[in-house]
Design goal:
single chain; mainly alpha; 0% strand; elongated
Amino acid sequence: MIICLGATIAELGVNTVTTRRVLYKMAFAVASVRLFIFPMLFILLYLLIIRPIGLSHAHTWVIFLQMHIPSGTALSIMAVQAGTNKEETSFVILVNYLLYLIVLPIYIIILFSLPGIL
């Protein structure tokens, strides 16, 4: 439902090739931070802080989820209500959720392969 909403708000059929190129650059810039840099920071945080201080598995799971979820849908709703950058925001969220569906299983496998998790 979120993916369909994002595609509808972004009016993907109306955009020109140049506009789409800018949208893709913006979407993948956000995705690289949200779906690559933050997960790498989680691994570093896990190895340097979480594991040494002995946080519970529940705490580790919550931190994992917070650092691996894509950008919030609330941003899209606020952009639509404000009437500014709604196409860009919704397209970025659309692309990020599509990528999230692909990378989340990989990140869960990585999480369970970290020492001390299982």
